[in-house]
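Re-run with default settings, no changes from the original entry. Doing this only to confirm the output is reproducible before filing.
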Amino acid sequence: MMIKKLVLTITLSILATASTFASAATLRFATNTPPDGTVSGKLIKEFAERVGKETDKRVRVRVFWNGSLGSQQEYLQQIQTGIIDFGLVGSATLENIGPAYSVLNMPYLFETVDDYRNVMNSDYVQNTLYSSTEQNGFIAFGYISNGFRSIISTKPVDSLDDLGRLKIRSMDSKTFIESLKIIGVNPIPMNFGDVYPAMQQGIVDGADMNLSAFWDSNYGEIATYGIRTEHVRLTDLIVMSKRMQKKVSPEDLDTIKNIMLDISNKSIDLVKEDQTKSVQLAQDKFDVKIIDINKYELKMKFSDFYKSFEKNPDTAEAYNQIMTILK
């Protein structure tokens, strides 16, 4: 009799587990990017479509575009509590919760595309760094390369010396703010969604962002000057709530992660192609003027800044691990 009860209990447990994943799970994905016009938007759409297809519609991804669920900081809090399942969160935002991510934001860390690829696909980043925020209710499981950032301006600039008189929007990140100060500009922290109107109204004179934004996000309509500093390569991390992992089967979770790994690798080459094409279109259509500078001289200004990452106990391990990969 006891054996029959045990068998019945196990059978009911198996049936209950199966029923948990029997109905399709609809997962919420938050991003502050638009669905069209940017590499991030195109790849997030591809991710959502492939998840549905490759899980035979057991899992669906519903994307909330253009910051409709709030700023990155706001929807990251909802990811932590499990209200939202996925989200695109920049490394600049993440460093405020996981300081180790700030190493990825160090100026002139990546000299080549291969440097970036080797670091982002390394065991350290894919496992150790990605899981470093688990105690905060979320982990990263992929990335979308956002390319190199430079300076765009509504006012004429001919050299780095001209930037000292300008108010330049910065992401709300200690690393980004300090980097811009070292470059010689006056950084103004501001959410991405507020930048365009702030530049229109003269609240800020420019921003540090990809030069492709002149075309991709129509900044060329209000700003026609740029300096190609390429001082940092921004990474958008794709993060997932810990609670989300209980909504799908282990097999479907593996499928989701493998799709994102493919998307991540694809983003590196796509963003390079997109930036080249978009910058040329901005120059042709908006008459954008872009100044090239001696980046080696600029990089030398950051030697003491690098040492601060090596000495800081919150960033030392990440700094040493990434420097070892680069060497």
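The chain has 13 helices and nine strands. The first helix runs from residue 2 to 22.
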